[in-house]
Amino acid sequence: MYSAYKGRIYTYLLRFLGDPELADDVTQETFTKAYRALGTLSNGHRVLPWLYRIASNAAIDQIRRRRRFGWLRLGAVKDTPEEPHVRDEHGRVPEREHIQAVLRSLPAENAMALLLHAVEGYSYNEIAEIQGCTMTAVRSRIARARASFKRGYDANIDEKSPGA
């Protein structure tokens, strides 16, 4: 199961979380939880939507934990050997960074529904099953996510344009 689905789950989590290390950690957590709950999976269940649901819940838990515990950089560690190294920003794609920033600004359930539909190709029914909600809720989440994403994306474009 791990080798068959790891890539898809990791890619989904990377798009949602925007951090490769965190996405890798949550992917590991997803498969650990799935392994423990494997006995509850009946023959009628489809494995990939089940894994997406576990991954979504684990990612939301991580986001909540990150909000509770914020790390502050202390000025005292500046220019010392203990100072964390800054990542090399030369290879970054600004467009991708902007998209991820806008996605992170959306409520988690809305962003996940949008990613599952627009990127992963799931139907509204399948997303309702993955997220454990009604199809009406999925429609609402995707509509809100699209509108918020467009506003957030366009706002950054307007800031960068020379006439703004």
CATH topology name of the largest domain, in short, is Rna Polymerase Sigma Factor, Chain: A
Beta-strand share of residues: under 5%
**Strand elements, count:** 0
Q: Which runs of at least 5 residues are low in confidence (pLDDT < 50)? A: 70-77, 80-91
Name given to the CATH architecture of the largest domain: Orthogonal Bundle
- What's the tally of helices? 7
Largest sheet: none
Task: Let me know the average pLDDT.
Answer: 82
What's the number of structural domains? Answer: 2
Structural class: mainly alpha
| Proportion of helical residues | 55-70%
The CATH top-level class label of the largest domain: Mainly Alpha
Backbone CA Rg: 18 Å
CATH evolutionary superfamily of the largest domain: RNA polymerase sigma factor, region 2, helix turn helix motif
Principal-axis shape equals globular
The span between the termini is: 51 Å
Order of helices and strands: HHHHHHH
